[in-house]
Amino acid sequence: MGIIKNNRTQEIIYLNTQHTFGRNRHTSNTYLSEQDISQSHALISWKGSHWYIQDHSRNGTLVNGEYINHATVKLSKGSKIQFGEQETTQWEMINLDSPSSYLKSLENPSKIIELTSCHAFPDDEKPEVLIYPGDTTWKLEKNGEALDLIQDEVYGIDNEEYVFVENNILEDTMDNGHVVNNAYFQFILSSDEEHIRIKIITQSQELDLGERVHNYILLALARKRLTDVNKGHVLGDQGWITIDDLLKDMSREFGKELDVYYLNLKIYRLRKLLLETKPYGYLFSNIIERRYGEIRLAHRYFQILKEEECIGEVLAVES
């Protein structure tokens, strides 16, 4: 993510997509106290694939020694920015990466967790807390419950408190909703159902998720959803199964006692696989939906094949 550093104080600022510098504490992302700084002095923003600085001030801004006033210039790594006459207003652009949301430690503000994928705390082998991208914002999953992260709210993670900063790129992207709504999960079973392969079928291509242990979880959830669809249950009630019932089913299937920790670990690895599957896998990373004590397959459409014969499906009706 974009980072600038103060040459005098060594303070580091993680840039928001639209980041305002100025002497107005209420409207500036970064407050500058010097008297020759304007209330809203300058804006650093992400546009396209570059960072730009736009001056709004009364006295102007120096960029690489050149004076700009009510003008916009592109920034490069190492660009020198000076907002006022004092040395304390001299900054340097040290990172040009695109913006991303992040968690900032309250105890140590210089410590951040940049949110780029699926994150497990305290680590990948003990995923007690999961943070992953949802449909519209980041989600935090803990003790079997998932909630949306909210801008400026504080969350306890791994014995430390963090504030969430939403910092999404503001740009028009492809119609991701169209991709998701016209895709379905395809389960391909061997005759003895010992092997389960999963593909995501979109209108333009197939995403092969391969044969993995966590595929059984999705298959069990798909079958529960199929049963509820056939019973005529309304959409909001379809597919929910208690965690206890799912674990009993999995324990019978794998021939050993499984617990919630095992289930959470497999779900974490599934989310991580989806986020790493190009180009559209990340759109389905929220495939597992939770509510208190229950879980379900979040995607409505799927097909179950056994020896190339369809044994159950719920597919979108073509309009």
How would you sum up this structure, described in words?
The chain is α+β, with helices and mostly antiparallel strands and 319 residues long. It is 16% helix and 39% strand. The protein has four helices and 27 strands. It has helices at 176-181, 215-230, 243-254, 260-276, and strands spanning 2-6, 12-14, 18-22, 30-31, 42-47, 50-55, 61-63, 66-68, 72-74, 80-82, 90-96, 102-105, 112-114, 119-123, 126-133, 138-142, 145-148, 154-157, 160-165, 184-189, 196-201, 206-211, 241-242, 288-291, 294-297, 302-306, 309-314. The strands form six sheets. Strands 2-1-11-10-7-8 form a six-stranded antiparallel β-sheet, with no helix packed on it. A five-stranded mixed β-sheet has the order 4-3-5-6-9, with no helix packed on it. The longest helix is centred in the last third of the chain and has 17 residues, at 260-276. The chain is elongated and about 75 Å long. The relative contact order is 0.11.
